[in-house]
Amino acid sequence: MKKLLIIVLIAVLQASCLRVTFSGASIDPEAKTFSVQYFENNASLIQPILSQTLTEQLRDKILGQTQLSMTKSGGDMAFEGEITGYTLQPVAIQSGETAQLTQLTITINVRFFNRLDETKNFESRFSRYQQFASSSNFASIEESLVESIVEELVEDIFNKAFVNW
After folding, report:
1. In this structure, what CATH number is given to the domain that contains residue 44?
2. Which of 66, 88, 91, 151 is packed most tightly, with the most Cβ within 10 A?
């Protein structure tokens, strides 16, 4: 009886109209490719490695969490966008009007095209931040802050495109 139940369950899963991955992503089984265009940095304050870091981490996330193959452009699932903000601002103002913390915020605009189901296309703004002690040397921690923020942004983009949150 158990074997029959397992066989039926496998048959139903194989016949389903969605491919489910361990990441929680639901991807149309007809989808075979994805493309991620280079994210141009249009922020007023430019961080030199940000565009490359964001673009590569999004590509790596999709490669690692789906069975889609990467193509240069025109993928079944296509991403494009730009970095629109890279700002530093004081937070947690103390007496004497000095900031105890500084906040680095990165904002991006993303366009997603699902060529197999255009109802899932979107254009969205994503923003994430990290706070650090104002007494810190920003130049020495900037790269790790950027990495952390980009990781969160990539997770947000992936979830919106493939997990449908």
Report:
1. 3.30.160.150
2. 66
Residue 75 to residue 49: CA distance in whole angstroms: 25
State the pLDDT at residue 84: 98
> What integer is the mean pLDDT of 53-63?
98
| pLDDT for 4 beyond 80 | no
Question: Does residue 148 belong to any structural domain of this protein?
Answer: yes
Dihedral through CA 137, CA 142, CA 109, CA 81, nearest 10? 140
Nearest in space to 18 (alpha carbons), one of 9, 31, 8, 7: 31
Domain count, the chain: 1
C-beta atoms surrounding 85 within 10 Å? 15
CA dihedral 145, 150, 156, 160 (to 10 degrees): 170
Judge whether residue 106 has pLDDT over 90.
yes
Specify whether the CB–CB gap between 106 and 127 falls below 8 A: yes
Q: How many CB atoms lie within 10 A of CB 35?
A: 19
Q: Is residue 126 part of a domain?
A: yes
CB 74 within 8 A of CB 117: no
* Domain, as residue range, for 116: 32-163
CB 58 within 8 A of CB 79: yes
